[in-house]
DNA sequence: CATCACCTGCTA
DNA sequence: TAGCAGGTGATG
């Protein structure tokens, strides 16, 4: 079953919590009601939903957010929300769309279309990694002589938009850069390689339908399968895919950097090569 | 610069 | 029961 919402008119909307990370915009359900859904776009990890009347819904799914689409039968229409289903819309064309977010780290905002560019959450965002403005030189320029780790730099959405914990680990492995390496110590050639690998891993992940972790599914309900292609993420203790194994390589290691896991291969990603042994 | 806080759910 | 989970703004 394929469900889509573009062109639909919102016949009913309801909220079932005061908000997610922040309170819902005042009167959200009422404002949504009666509007036509004109289109969808994306900026970094934000989903932008353009509505009639010059309004845009700015949506972020945080860590645990999901959008559930269905075509309920007549009898099911208006049924009570599922657990953690904090926002529900139904359309005159018969679709139902629920926003489920157990941890409530997501966010929903409502802005005039003219104010999207200057929205406080969007205005400082870096270039799209698959776009023309992103390359090794951009990364090198943003790194400057900073001492922050390359891991933290890549997760900074002002530097490049849309990278998260999984794809940063994967890109750093493919570029053979240690996640704790100081951003300012990485040379131009390495940054070129890194930018190339960031694009490659994202393109491969998109082609594979994304990474189904816990319960992520594509809009049609199909599972993504890129999680099977992860080379280091979530593979602590497993053999490195590019090393011969013990005794020369003990496999994938996990470290914690500012509260988040990083996975890498110490042999491929240069602990002794150019970092010193204190970073393992 | 790193760490904390915000939440719930699952697993070792 | 502790620790960990796809994110990010606020804090020190």
From TrEMBL:
<keyword id="KW-0862">Zinc</keyword>
<keyword id="KW-0472">Membrane</keyword>
<keyword id="KW-0378">Hydrolase</keyword>
<dbReference type="Pfam" id="PF06831">
    <property type="entry name" value="H2TH"/>
</dbReference>
<feature type="domain" description="Formamidopyrimidine-DNA glycosylase catalytic">
    <location>
        <begin position="1"/>
        <end position="106"/>
    </location>
</feature>
<comment type="similarity">
    <text>Belongs to the FPG family.</text>
</comment>
<dbReference type="InterPro" id="IPR012319">
    <property type="entry name" value="FPG_cat"/>
</dbReference>
<protein>
    <recommendedName>
        <fullName>Formamidopyrimidine-DNA glycosylase</fullName>
        <ecNumber>3.2.2.23</ecNumber>
        <ecNumber>4.2.99.18</ecNumber>
    </recommendedName>
</protein>
<keyword id="KW-0326">Glycosidase</keyword>
<keyword id="KW-0863">Zinc-finger</keyword>
<keyword id="KW-0238">DNA-binding</keyword>
<keyword id="KW-0479">Metal-binding</keyword>
<dbReference type="InterPro" id="IPR010979">
    <property type="entry name" value="Ribosomal_uS13-like_H2TH"/>
</dbReference>
<keyword id="KW-0511">Multifunctional enzyme</keyword>
<keyword id="KW-0234">DNA repair</keyword>
<comment type="subunit">
    <text>Monomer.</text>
</comment>
<dbReference type="InterPro" id="IPR020629">
    <property type="entry name" value="FPG_Glyclase"/>
</dbReference>
<keyword id="KW-0456">Lyase</keyword>
<keyword id="KW-0812">Transmembrane</keyword>
<keyword id="KW-0227">DNA damage</keyword>
<dbReference type="InterPro" id="IPR000214">
    <property type="entry name" value="Znf_DNA_glyclase/AP_lyase"/>
</dbReference>
<feature type="domain" description="FPG-type">
    <location>
        <begin position="231"/>
        <end position="270"/>
    </location>
</feature>
<dbReference type="Pfam" id="PF01149">
    <property type="entry name" value="Fapy_DNA_glyco"/>
</dbReference>
<feature type="transmembrane region" description="Helical">
    <location>
        <begin position="46"/>
        <end position="69"/>
    </location>
</feature>
<keyword id="KW-1133">Transmembrane helix</keyword>
<dbReference type="InterPro" id="IPR015886">
    <property type="entry name" value="H2TH_FPG"/>
</dbReference>
<dbReference type="InterPro" id="IPR035937">
    <property type="entry name" value="FPG_N"/>
</dbReference>
